[in-house]
Amino acid sequence: MKSVEYKQNSILRQVRRRGAIIRRELASDLGISNSRVCDVVDHMVSDELLLEELLGDERRGRGGAPVRVNPEHGYVAGFDFEATRMRLVVVNFAGQAVWQTKASLDAKLERRELLETVLSFIDGALSEARTSYPKLLGLGLATCGMVDSKRGVVLRYDMMPGAYDLPLRDLASARFDLPCLMENNMRALTLAEWMQGAAQHLDTFVCLAVRSGIGAGIVMNGRLLNGSHGFAGEVGYMGVTDGSGGRHRLHEFVGEQALGLDAEAGSLTPSRARRVGGILGSQLASIASLIDPEAIVLAGSLLQPQGALWDHVVAAFREVAMPEQIDCVHLVPARLGPFAAAIGAANLCLQSLNPTEGTRSNAL
Fold first, then answer.
1. Topology alike, domains 73-189+340-353 and 200-335
2. Are 77 and 126 in contact (CB under 8 A)?
3. Is the pLDDT of residue 187 over 70?
């Protein structure tokens, strides 16, 4: 029975990524016999996990009719917070956002007040969302800072003194009576861009985001990496030297707080944009030489192509990168916008509700 459940969940994940797909292509993608896939898919259609697309009033045959995830089978909420803001989305069973809300957050809150502020925001948002989407199956939490995702604890976040030793997952699960999963918000954002955004067809890439701070997620050969200790992608701690030989961390130069910008928007002088873009582009070249990705996806309002940093980042990357990588490691803008991490957290929760054999909860 467990084997059948795992096969169903593998099919669900692949159909979510592909949108609509015929049984024969599913069998090829998953390495399962066509007859077995047809049997499992037929049961999933009967259980209304999947919907079968029709051509007029006729089916296209047992293997020829595309199937897609039934978006109304259930809903999952996704929450994301960082130093200055909170966001919550509701996604349908296909992983698509159908509702969202946001609120500001004071980075100087003490620990107890921070916890209550976060939980109260989620409480109010869920209450409002349930009026339209009562069938909530779970809650995904995307959190800033160093995260122990196995225990569901925010270990610390340098930009929020009160954000330390926060057992947010267990507190949220008990308060809202929902299964909860927690992950670093950069990895959640990376998953969202992988499933639905700029990295949808990539197997090895880095997604780097500049928000309140700076962080990244890494996908290597089709797996979203946590690292040996759960800290993969903490690029904010990469070393940077200033003109006088002093040593600093990247997050001291790059990020909304480091630059003194408002949460959602802000402007940089041309000279400062050139300096910050040069630092970031050089670091991207170092990341490229280490990982050799197909692309680096750049997220956050500061890293939009029309923004002040983009041209300087690209120019510095091309100047410093290995000659062999300049034209084959592409810098591409993210597509999903400011709610991407919350969407990714919701999709991670969907995955955790439907585990597959031999995989971790954050692997597609």
1. yes
2. yes
3. yes
